[in-house]
Amino acid sequence: MVSIGAPAFLAANGYVVAVQDARGRYASEGLWYPFRDEAWGQQQDGFDTVEWLARQDWCDGNVGTFGGSFAGFNQYLHAGNPGPHLASMFVRQAPCSLRDEWVYRGGAFELGFMFQWAARQSLEALRNRATQLERMALQRQLEFFRFRPLAKNPLFSDPFDWIKDYLRLQDDENYWKQFDVAQFHQTFAVPTYHLASWFDLFLGGSLRNFTGMRNAAKSEEARRRHRLTIGPWMHGPRTDSEPDGQRVGEVDFGPDARFDYKGEMLRWFDYTLKKVPGDFESSPAVRYFVTGLNRWRISDDWPPKSVVCRQIYFDSRPSGCARSLYDGGLTWTPAAEDTLPARFVHDPDQPVETVGGATLYSLTAQRPGDPLGWNELNAEAGPRDQRKIEERCLTFTSAPLDADLEVTGPVVAKLFISSSAVDTDFVVRLTDVLPDGRSMLVCDGIQRVRYRESNYQPSLLEPDKIYELTVDLWATSHLFRRGHRLRAVINSSSFPRFDVNPGTGESSASATTTVIAQNTVYLDRRRPSHLVLPVDQT
């Protein structure tokens, strides 16, 4: 939040603000390995910093933390060993599991984001390493010479070891456990404001941390220590000069979508650190923005108790409104017993491109005046018209709605599938089809089929055998207007957002060959592929 002047703003409102560099970056010595030293391991840099701040004579012993993304996950990592003086957190857009909501999703590698983030972050680490090497070699030679064992001098290590480990150790549960906050939800009781966004890469993790920490709380008072706001935005705050969050992807959500990051953070810290009475004492725990309606709602829980899950089924009867590889229907009743399946070909060397979504990467050059690159990294994100890729996808579209339909909460696709390959992916997108034909993305998800049963024990497919598959589209709150249609768009790739499944059963980190997959989605009454939608009944 440095880009919007949050440190200066908080300092001007009565707080002492300290900004810490991670090991191996900027002014900090040491080795750059994201999150390893901020967690509950040997170093515990976050714990040490909080306790050092609390001991200063200008501190009253209560320390709050703020920030998002990298700094957001660093805050969540306090859950494994919170210091006694950590009194409040304001966390924007961060995961619960580094593996499942940062590096991978549904077993697929977050290629576009991870490679650009690795390059950006490690570029500074390389500069830092050069400075450290020069200092040691020219000023502290004896210390440099005395390091043992010689072959493991950390200044000769690879600043990209971490990204190689992320790729190499995908199935190593012990490795990823050190970066999984969920195991500490029950014991973490620090008041925490969770800020999430519908079109942000870390939406799923933000929701998991809020619901996990709140549901595991041992008292009503502990439950009240958590707040959740979900806006319609992409990743990161903008500068003060921009209409924060109103324009997202190809959609203008109106002035109500704007959000006062700094003001909300100040109110939270005044309430939790200075004990200033405010709206937090009486207001519901959850505030969320309904896209389509373009208004905020409040709730005591997430998802709201007014939500009822309904199944809407894929059907072979043409909708007549989609130019797609397969134009099917979407109906509230299951298909007939003898309905034929829908088939398509997935060629890993000809992947379907990514169009929008909760992603964070760019195919454009950095824009002037954007020092941290939020605009650039959000260049491909948000709600966007999917028609440009639907010709290469299966589509299932409902009839025009005869009344408004509000979908609020977790969205899941239940597919019955088979493949000629031993491994493949299924990507599912939910879109809002407007009367003018635009097919605007609402939410989406991906599932690598070899991880259908376990994150850490992959199992290959028996070619052409039918399997049940769950694809998690995370969540949304969207009003489908009367006269609009719902559409499910299905294929097996979203490149370069995710790595392309080679189909050989190998990881794309090591595979050198690919196979073309003949993929099938079943639609009959015994194998009724469908979406599970959380429909608001109010």
Describe this protein with a few key phrases.
21% helix, six-stranded mixed sheet, 538 residues, 13 helices, 25% strand, single chain, alpha+beta, eleven-stranded mixed sheet
Task: Give an account of the 3D structure.
- This protein is of the alpha+beta class.
- 21% of the residues lie in helices and 25% in strands.
- It is built from 13 helices and 21 strands.
- It has helices spanning 6-12, 45-55, 70-76, 98-103, 111-139, 141-145, 161-168, 173-177, 203-215, 220-223, 261-272, 374-377, 387-390, and strands spanning 63-68, 86-92, 104-105, 108-109, 192-197, 226-231, 247-248, 251-252, 286-290, 295-299, 307-315, 326-331, 342-346, 394-397, 405-419, 425-433, 439-448, 467-480, 485-491, 517-521, 530-536.
- The strands form four sheets. Strands 11, 12, 13, 14, 15, 16, 17, 18, 19, 20 and 21 form an eleven-stranded mixed sheet that branches.
- Strand 3 and strand 4 form a beta hairpin.
- The longest helix has 29 residues, at 111-139.
- The radius of gyration is 24 Å and the shape is globular.
- The model has no long low-confidence stretch (mean pLDDT 92).
What can be said about this structure in brief?
It is built from 13 helices and 21 strands. It has 538 residues and is an alpha+beta fold.
Break the fold down into its secondary structure elements and pairings:
Layout (H helix, E strand, L loop, with lengths): L5 H7 L32 H11 L7 E6 L1 H7 L9 E7 L5 H6 E2 L2 E2 L1 H29 L1 H5 L15 H8 L4 H5 L14 E6 L5 H13 L4 H4 L2 E6 L15 E2 L2 E2 L8 H12 L13 E5 L4 E5 L7 E9 L10 E6 L10 E5 L27 H4 L9 H4 L3 E4 L7 E15 L5 E9 L5 E10 L18 E14 L4 E7 L25 E5 L8 E7 L2
Parallel strand pairs: 1-2, 2-5, 5-6, 6-9, 12-14
Antiparallel strand pairs: 3-4, 7-8, 9-10, 11-12, 11-21, 13-20, 14-19, 15-18, 15-20, 15-21, 16-17, 16-19
